[in-house]
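Operator note (shift B, R.M.): manual run for Ribokinase requested after the automated queue skipped it. Running by hand, logging everything below so the morning shift can see what happened. Input copied straight from the record, untouched. If output looks odd, do not overwrite the archive copy; leave it for review.
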Amino acid sequence: MAIWNLGSINVDTVFSLPHMPSPGETLSSTARNVFLGGKGTNMSVAAARAAAIVHHIGAVGDDGEWTVDRLMEYGVDTRFIARVDEDTAQAMIMVDPKGENIVILHPGANVAIPQAILQEAMAEAQTGDWLLIQNETNLQRTAATLGKQMGLQVAYAAAPFDADRVKAVLPYLNLLFLNAVEAAQLEQATGKRPQDLGVRDVIITLGGDGADWFGPEGHRHFDAVPVTPVDTTGAGDTFTGYVLAGLDRGHPMAQAINLATRAAALMVTRHGTADVIPDLKELEDFRP
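Run finished. Output pasted below as returned.
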C-alpha cells in the first residue's frame, strides 16, 4: 500500500522572538533559520519517517530545486513534483519563548499544480491506497473526486480552514483531520457535529489536551504526552502523517493515534519543521 499526498512545499523562514509583536511594533529576532516546510511536505516526511511508502504530488519554482532534493533524501517519491513558472511557496514563521507561533504564507507554486501531474500520479495508484489532501494547494476537489472513483481512501487535513472548501470535499472523505478551532468553525458552517458529518473517521487534535476520535464505534479521547514545548510548528502535520502511515501499514486506528501522539509530542520539543520530524527509532528512544 502507499500514500499519495497532494501537498504543499514551502521554504520556511523561522524567526525566534522574545514575544509576539504588537501592531506597529518593530522587534528584533533572537534567531533566524530556514527549513523545508509546508503542511503537505511535513506530512509526507512524517509518513515516510513512520515507514510508509509516500508519493508527493506538488509543484515548485526554479528556486525550489533544493526542496525536492531534500524530500527525496527523506525517502519521499518526488517524481510527481512539477516545475512551474511561479516562485516556490514561502512561509514566515514567528515563534515566541512558549513555542506558540504565527505564520504568514505566500502560496506561490502550491496553487499552480498542473492537473496533468495529478493525473499522471493517480495512474499509478492502487485500490486501497491513501490519498491525502490539504487546503494549501489547488486541485483538492478534483483529486478527491478522482480518488473516490478509483477506490482510494481519501484523507483531508482541513487547514488553513475554509468552510466552503471543506464542504466541497466532505462527500468523498474517509478520514478528516481538524483542530479544535476548525471543528467549531465547521460545526457552525454545517450545523453538524463531527460524528454527524457522514465521514467514517474524524480526528480532532486538541494540542496539549490530546485528540478526539469519532469513528464507527463512537467517540474516544486520547491524552497528550506531557512535554515542555519549544516550537509547536508542524506538530499537527507530524500527527497526521504518523496516523496515516500507521493505518497504511495495517494498524488499528487507536494504535496509529497513540504513536502519532508520541511523535507530535517529540516534535514540539524541537525547533524547525520537516527537517526535524522524528523517525520511528527516535520514538522508541523517547522518554518524556
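Quick read of the result: The chain has nine helices and 13 strands. The first strand starts at residue 3 and ends at 6.
Leaving this for review. - R.M.
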